[in-house]
Design goal:
Length: 333
């Protein structure tokens, strides 16, 4: 009889656990929705600096998002310091600054821009000072930033496929000519030879293997999100049977701490604005910043509600334009 009672109790317990597991995500999302919303009117009174992600917040595929250049101007006139931090490794600080200016974002300084390319160059320079050459999967912005810290990047010459590797006798290449492997998003002329070489070099675990960022996708402005830097990193890591030593880009806490130190920010008086929960929101939260998810890029309200706690934003708005419109309308004039 005792065994029978135990079996009944176990069955009921298992059913309860299974039901709880089934309903937990829905209950959690509804509870979160109750405390998620627009920032309170007094928020900007307590904010000195706004750290803006770029893709999906300021622009999408080379076009400024409607009303956002004016919003950034209004926030600046309201006395807020604006910093621009992007996980894009295709941009150098200089090219990002030029792009923002060309899109109508006035008063942007190169010194107020950080890209994952510049962060990667800074990281290599600080942590691996012996590195003089790096094999790169990435665009010109990454190569330019590496050059500024004295690192010669190879890779752009590799534009072929398997036959190019055979013709070059790559398998016979002498070791030691590459000190590190750096992988980020490459959109143009990405080919098998470049990915294969990066993977082959990364298989030697004595070489640092650096990921500029791990973003899965980005809002390309073509109706669907497209593969981002993390997709290139995954290719190389999978083939090399090795994870990157470090992800330099958001949500790296080290990058967040560097940002705080570099610009003397008080995290409690800083607002991180982004369109991705697992990079921008997690990045801001890692050092105690307030976080605002804008729905003008990658992630949706459902993504925020159903994601892990460390990626849950303090506030959600449709666009950065809404922050300025609601909180500093006098400055928007
Ligand atoms: Mg973004």
């Amino acid at each position: 009889m005792r065994e029978f009672s135990f079996l009944i109790a176990s069955a009921v317990g298992s059913a309860a656990v299974a039901a709880a597991a089934r309903w937990f995500p829905t209950v959690r999302a509804r509870l979160r929705a109750l405390r998620l919303g627009a920032p309170p009117p007094s928020l900007l009174d307590r904010i000195d600096a706004i750290v803006c992600d770029c893709d999906g917040v300021l622009f999408a595929h080379g076009t400024a998002l409607p009303g956002v250049p004016e919003a950034v101007g209004a926030l600046r006139r309201a006395g807020k310091r604006l910093l621009f931090v992007t996980n894009s490794a295709t941009q150098s600080r200089r090219s990002l600054c030029a792009k923002l200016s060309a899109l109508g974002y006035g008063g942007v300084l190169e010194a107020d821009c950080i890209t994952s390319a510049s962060a990667t160059a800074g990281y290599l320079h600080a942590h691996y000072p012996h590195v003089r050459t790096a094999y790169c999967v990435g665009e010109q912005g990454l190569l330019d930033e590496l050059a500024l810290v004295g690192i010669r990047a190879s890779g752009p010459a590799d534009t072929g496929g398997m036959q190019a590797l055979v013709d070059e006798r790559f398998a016979d290449a002498p070791p030691g000519e590459v000190d590190a492997v750096v992988v980020g998003l490459q959109m143009e002329r990405l080919c098998y030879a470049r990915l294969a070489k990066a993977s082959a070099y990364a298989r030697d675990r004595s070489r640092p293997f650096i990921a500029t960022n791990l973003d899965e996708n980005w809002p390309a402005g073509v109706g669907v999100v497209l593969p981002a830097g993390g997709a290139c990193v995954r290719f190389v890591a999978y083939a090399a049977e090795r994870a990157p030593d470090v992800n330099v880009g958001k949500p790296s806490r080290e990058l967040a701490r560097l940002l705080v130190r570099l610009y003397a920010l008080d995290p409690r008086r800083t607002l991180m604005v982004g369109d991705r929960c697992n990079t921008d929101v997690a990045f801001g939260r890692s050092v105690g910043m307030r976080t605002l998810l804008v729905l003008s890029g990658c992630h949706t309200l459902a993504d925020a509600l159903n994601g892990p706690a460390e990626c849950f934003p303090d506030f959600v708005l449709p666009s950065l334009d809404d922050l300025a419109a609601h909180h500093c309308p006098q400055a928007a004039a």
